[in-house]
Amino acid sequence: MASEQTEPTKVLWRRLLHLVIDGLLIGTTAILLGLVVLFGLTVGLARWITFDVAFAVGVVFFVAAALLGPIVNEVWIPHRSRSGASVGMRIAGIQVIMLDGSKPPLKAFALRYLLMVVDGMLWGLVGLVVVLRTPRRQRVGDLVAGTVVVRRGSVDQPVLPGPDRDLGAVPETELALDAPKV
Predict the structure, then answer these.
(1) Predicted confidence (pLDDT) per residue in 29-72, tens digit
(2) Average pLDDT of 171-178?
(3) For position 15, what pLDDT does the model report?
(4) HSE, side-chain direction, 13 A CA sphere, residue 166
(5) How many Cα atoms sit within 13 Å of 97 on the Cβ side?
(6) Beta bridge partners of residue 98, listed in sequence order
(7) How far apart are CA 82 and CA 103, in angstroms?
(8) Is the Cβ–Cβ distance between 117 and 45 less than 8 Å?
(9) DSSP state, residue 158
């Protein structure tokens, strides 16, 4: 009998919330950066630069922010932070840890990011199915990188325990009737 905290949908909603928040953050940043550059070049350098050139430079800054933003947010920020979480993960109350409970290295975050291509296939349906079908609610990137997404605050534990309703990412196992409860 699974507890309320271990329902697959609860974990899924936290992960989806993090993706929405991160997407809005990166998209808004890219648009604002492009507009600021466009406006700055158009107004500040109006005598030397035409609107067409300013627009092209603004588009270049927008594209650069749109391409580099996800890498910074999904790889660099979690790697450099103590919590192992992007901005959206912090707000959603989740973080990434290795299966042994340690903080993931840069390589693990990079693998998770690169394999988002696989998880995002068919409008994210592949990732959704994999998360719902794996015992620790891992997507393909997590499986390959050896990471798991858990609720924030569980990093202090030396080893990631077996299924535990307090982590929120792993379902509760059924105990045999004659097995002693620990």
Answers:
(1) 888 888 888 777 777 666 677 777 877 888 888 888 888 989 99
(2) 47
(3) 86
(4) 7
(5) 23
(6) 147
(7) 8
(8) no
(9) S
SS3 179: coil
Contact 181, 131 (CB under 8 A): no
- pTM, whole model, 2 decimals? 0.72
Instruction: Give the pair of three-digit tokens for residue 31.
Output: 């648009």
CA pair distance 84, 154, nearest whole angstrom: 11
Angstrom distances, CA of residue 156 to CA of 50, 160, 167:
56, 10, 12
Question: Which tokens belong to 154?
Answer: 């569980």
Q: Are the C-beta atoms of 94 and 125 separated by less than 8 Å?
A: no
Report residue 37 as tokens: 């550059």
User: Is the distance from CB of 152 to CB of 93 less than 8 angstroms?
Assistant: yes
Tokens of 104: 């993931």
Q: Could you tell me what percentage of the chain is helix, strand and coil, using 3-state DSSP and rounding each to the nearest 5?
A: 60, 5, 35
Residue 90 has pLDDT above 70, yes or no: yes
8 Å CB contact between 41 and 54 = yes
Query: Distance between CA 4 and CA 102 in Å, rounded?
Result: 27
How does pLDDT run across 136-160, given as a tens digit for each residue? 889 999 999 999 988 876 544 434 4
Separation between Cα atoms, residue 150 and residue 157, nearest integer Å: 12
Q: Give me the percent of the chain exceeding a pLDDT of 90.
A: 29
Give the type of residue at 121.
M
